[in-house]
Amino acid sequence: MDLGLEGKVALITGASRGIGRAIALAFAREGAAVVATARSRDDLDETVQAMAGNQHCAVVADVTDPDRIAAAVDEATSTLGPIDIVVNNAGQRQNFGRLDELDVEEWRRVLEANLSSAFYVARAVVPGMIERRTGSIVNIASIAGPVGFGRIGAYTAAKAGLIALTKVMAVEWSEYGIRANAVAPGWTESPMNLELRTEPENRELFESIRDTTLLKRFGVPREVADVVVFLAGSPSSYITGETVMVDGGWLAV
Asked: Is 120 an active-site residue?
């Protein structure tokens, strides 16, 4: 299927590893020019080197810093041209704890990284999309968004907020030809859950999660990435304001 991404410029946050790297590689395979961003250059250059073609760049940026994001967008635009697609993938895990025990700074950190960051990136990129009257935004949410996961309340609230923010983006910017959708991965193999999948003391929990997923396994990053490029591409041109669950049927149980 031709996704119509050849020659498009896609900005991917949190692209240094895991799902973010898989998304960057998927866009490169489709012929897009990729701006790969992350907080540090560790692994970021490796992502760029792994992408097909040479029309890509790495930009170090902390997505919780609005000024740095604006500067990164300017740098990317001057290097590769106007940004056509944004994938807000960057995020951080939460330290486990009940809401009444949760440190206020931890709450703020998690919401900034997983929710406010998408607003900061969109605010920097969307004016150019409005001017050109075209663009696609894909926000990486989580199955934690529609579910009340205990002991990760800040993360759950942030991802629920991101799903709502996606709808607002779709509503406010549709008149300018801009679409906004979200992808909510389920349990997916990534560096964030390596200990859960590999440490003997976590085996019972890992098997419980795996066995309550209809497909009886964790997903892999490319399975999420394939949905992201579809939502960003022309075959999904009549889809906006939606959240696609990529969870192996976990929410269907």
From this structure: no
